[in-house]
């Protein structure tokens, strides 16, 4: 077996750090897109259902009040196009990164120690979480009343 030099292995340390940086930034971009397209109300509006009497200064679209249907939840922000496409991209890329990180960790534990049931359980759990994230990102349900 050939081992990679230590310099090349340090590049892999970027992957676990980049996962939360990439996903958190992506979720905020999705929120900004949904806010710009007026698919959700701003986070700082705490007057839901009470703001219907007068127009809010930040709203210029057809819906002039914030109801409980417009609360900016993560899944609500990524429901309608065009932000739904970016939400799917973020979730799919994040799921791939989770699968790669858990696989690399699994291989690292096998290399340094012997394989154990806990190592296999962590690999399985990581891949199940990645599959769930892929399904959440790519199968959005739109409520039509």
UniProtKB/TrEMBL annotation:
Cellular compartment(s): Endomembrane system
Pfam families recorded: Frag1 (PF10277)
Alphabetical keyword list: Membrane, Transmembrane, Transmembrane helix
Membrane topology field: Multi-pass membrane protein
Occurrences of domain CWH43-like N-terminal (ranges): 12-144
Family: Belongs to the DRAM/TMEM150 family.
Protein name: CWH43-like N-terminal domain-containing protein
Organism phylogeny: Eukaryota, Metazoa, Chordata, Craniata, Vertebrata
């Amino acid at each position: 077996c050939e081992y990679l030099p230590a310099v090349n292995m340090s590049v892999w340390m970027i992957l676990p750090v980049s996962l939360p940086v990439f996903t958190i930034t992506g979720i905020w971009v999705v929120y900004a897109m949904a806010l710009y397209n007026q698919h959700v109300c701003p986070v700082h509006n705490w007057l839901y259902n009470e703001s219907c009497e007068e127009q809010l200064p930040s709203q210029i679209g057809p819906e002039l009040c914030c109801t409980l249907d417009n609360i900016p939840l993560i899944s609500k922000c990524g429901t309608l196009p065009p932000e739904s496409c970016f939400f799917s991209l973020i979730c799919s890329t994040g799921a791939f990164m989770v699968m790669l990180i858990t696989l690399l960790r699994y291989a690292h534990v096998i290399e340094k120690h012997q394989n154990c049931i806990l190592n296999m359980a962590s690999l399985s759990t990581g891949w199940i979480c990645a599959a769930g994230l892929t399904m959440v990102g790519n199968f959005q349900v739109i409520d039509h009343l």
